[in-house]
């Protein structure tokens, strides 16, 4: 493996960053390095008003480009308030069975899996920005169907395509953000997509519980339509433009993203050097698992994405009302608790996104897994005592309070860091494939966790799946300490050095 100097400074040094890169002709290069004048600024300098004026266009582009993530959050949490509605006499669709409600939960995940090949092709041939617009347009159509249909089959169809649209959003948007973001706020901007998803969950829990059925689809239509209408006016990724030999358009895009006073010519030159190098290199698709550093990146995302679901987040989001009703709490209605749960998730995810670039990824992950495992164990013990027919009325507040604490501890790290690291750990040459495979892992883990929960709950009671989730949370701590590197403040090239085991990389430190 070639070695090179990572000390920020000259274009020559950037040009000499050859490393162990592999490329396919279909891959669009992603973020490499930023000009040294930008990279060398410290975290504390971000409080300067001039710096934030320089960063504001990137924040605006990210917010407008991630409105579909809010829609995806609404779709993900939709079953929690809607399944009780479909089972009630007020349902506008008759004869909804238990199997139908389970399919409503999982079919969105099947849609996400089915959409993965289209996502890979889309981000490379159509571009990140266009894929983000397409995903919002598909999401808008799905919400329209859910608003007007009286057919259960069309509900399933809309949910399926919601999954496809959400998958495209959660692959294309992080890639777009990584390409336009200043390294100082890359973690924060990458976290915004997850925050928008949480806003969607808060919305669907609140509106779905308190308003008529039609209210949620109407909000979904408005949100996705806004992205379809306004996001086309945002700048395209300069990397994608240069890759397609649109250098003047790339320069205009950078001016809009960085401001007229930024060192645009220097950054354009660095991007072009990176693109030319990528085009000159060759690779095979299987290198994502055959190359050691790529394999490590895949293992990292396997750990993070599997851990998220095996500590129960998908199960709790989709079955929160059922879980709280099963707890039999007399202190808080399940609908009120669900809204509170989603608000707490949003607040702590916002807090974590503000400190992730200061304290780092690993400390948030390990702290989150430890606290989450403890609270899941407490909830499991409560359900176990209830299952053994002990009188637990005087502590029936435990599950509701425990779920609220779970919302905080999970979002502190395990619920936020994976979406940030997925755009960091894969090398630019296989990022599209790597991120898509990560999404496959995410979806499969979600399906398995939901299936396990349903089976164990019906066979043994609510306490067994919660014991399992707690055990998985504690087990995740070991894997996080052993395998997850700290990427805070590092360029993408430095992260690759760590994964390659370079003597200066200090993997895991």
Short description:
With 509 residues, this protein is mainly α.
Give the SSE map:
Layout: H1 11-15, H2 36-39, H3 49-65, H4 67-77, H5 79-87, H6 98-114, H7 116-125, H8 128-148, H9 152-180, H10 186-210, H11 215-230, H12 238-243, H13 247-258, H14 264-280, H15 287-290, H16 292-310, H17 313-327, H18 334-359, H19 361-387, H20 397-412, H21 417-421, H22 431-460, H23 463-483, H24 492-500
Helix pairs in contact: 3-10, 4-8, 4-9, 4-10, 4-11, 5-17, 6-9, 6-22, 7-8, 7-9, 7-22, 8-9, 8-11, 9-10, 9-22, 10-18, 16-22, 16-23, 16-24, 17-18, 18-20, 19-20, 19-23
Describe the structure.
Helix 18 runs parallel beside helix 20 (397-412). The protein is globular and about 70 Å long. It has 2 domains: 20-33 and 45-280, Growth Hormone, Chain: A, CATH 1.20.1250.20; 284-509, Growth Hormone, Chain: A (Up-down Bundle). The two termini are 21 Å apart. The model is unreliable at 1-47 and 503-509 (pLDDT under 50). The protein has helices spanning 11-15, 36-39, 49-65, 67-77, 79-87, 98-114, 116-125, 128-148, 152-180, 186-210, 215-230, 238-243, 247-258, 264-280, 287-290, 292-310, 313-327, 334-359, 361-387, 397-412, 417-421, 431-460, 463-483, 492-500. It has 509 residues and is mainly α. It contains 24 helices and no strands.
Descriptive terms for the model:
509 residues, mainly alpha, Growth Hormone, Chain: A, 2 domains, 0% strand
């Amino acid at each position: 493996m070639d070695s090179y100097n990572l000390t920020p400074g000259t274009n020559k040094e950037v040009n000499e960053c050859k490393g162990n890169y592999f490329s396919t002709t279909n891959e669009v290069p992603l973020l490499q390095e930023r000009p040294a004048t930008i990279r060398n600024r410290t975290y504390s300098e971000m409080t300067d008003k001039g710096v934030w004026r320089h960063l504001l266009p990137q924040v605006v582009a990210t917010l407008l480009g991630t409105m579909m993530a809010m829609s995806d959050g609404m779709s993900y949490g939709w079953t929690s308030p809607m399944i009780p509605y479909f089972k009630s006499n007020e349902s506008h669709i008759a004869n909804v069975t238990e199997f139908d409600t389970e399919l409503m939960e999982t079919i969105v995940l099947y849609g996400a899996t089915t959409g993965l090949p289209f996502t890979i092709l889309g981000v490379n041939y159509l571009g990140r920005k266009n894929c983000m617009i397409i995903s919002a347009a598909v999401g808008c159509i799905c919400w329209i169907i859910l608003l007007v249909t009286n057919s259960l089959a069309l509900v399933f169809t809309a949910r399926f395509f919601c999954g496809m649209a959400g998958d495209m959003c959660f692959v294309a948007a992080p890639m777009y953000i990584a390409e336009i973001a200043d390294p100082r706020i890359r973690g924060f901007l990458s976290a915004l997509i997850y925050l928008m998803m949480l806003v969607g969950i808060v919305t669907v829990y609140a509106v779905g519980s308190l308003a008529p059925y039609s209210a949620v689809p109407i909000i979904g239509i408005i949100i996705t339509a806004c992205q379809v209408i306004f996001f086309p006016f945002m700048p395209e990724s300069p990397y994608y433009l240069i890759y397609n030999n649109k250098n003047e358009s790339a320069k205009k895009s950078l001016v809009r993203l960085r401001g007229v006073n930024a060192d645009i010519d220097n950054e354009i030159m660095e991007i072009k050097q990176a693109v030319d190098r990528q085009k000159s290199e060759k690779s095979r698709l299987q290198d994502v698992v055959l190359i050691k550093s790529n394999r490590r990146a895949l293992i990292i995302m396997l750990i993070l994405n599997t851990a998220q679901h095996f500590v129960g987040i998908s199960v709790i989001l989709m079955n929160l009302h059922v879980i709280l009703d099963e707890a039999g709490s007399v202190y808080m209605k399940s609908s009120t608790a669900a809204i509170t749960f989603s608000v707490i998730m949003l607040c702590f995810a916002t807090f974590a996104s503000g400190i992730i670039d200061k304290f780092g990824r690993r400390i948030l992950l390990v702290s989150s897994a430890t606290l989450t495992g403890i609270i899941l164990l407490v909830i499991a013990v409560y359900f176990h005592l209830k299952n053994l027919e002990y009188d637990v009325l005087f502590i029936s507040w435990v599950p509701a309070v425990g779920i609220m604490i779970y919302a905080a501890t999970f979002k502190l790290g395990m619920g936020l860091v994976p979406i940030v690291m997925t755009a960091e750990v894969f090398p630019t040459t296989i990022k599209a494939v790597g991120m898509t495979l990560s999404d496959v892992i995410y979806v499969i883990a979600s399906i398995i966790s939901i299936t396990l929960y349903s089976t164990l709950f019906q066979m043994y009671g609510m306490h067994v799946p919660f014991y399992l989730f707690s055990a998985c949370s504690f087990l995740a701590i070991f894997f996080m300490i052993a395998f997850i590197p700290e990427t805070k403040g590092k360029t993408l090239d430095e992260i690759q050095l760590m994964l390659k085991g370079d003597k200066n990389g200090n993997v895991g430190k």
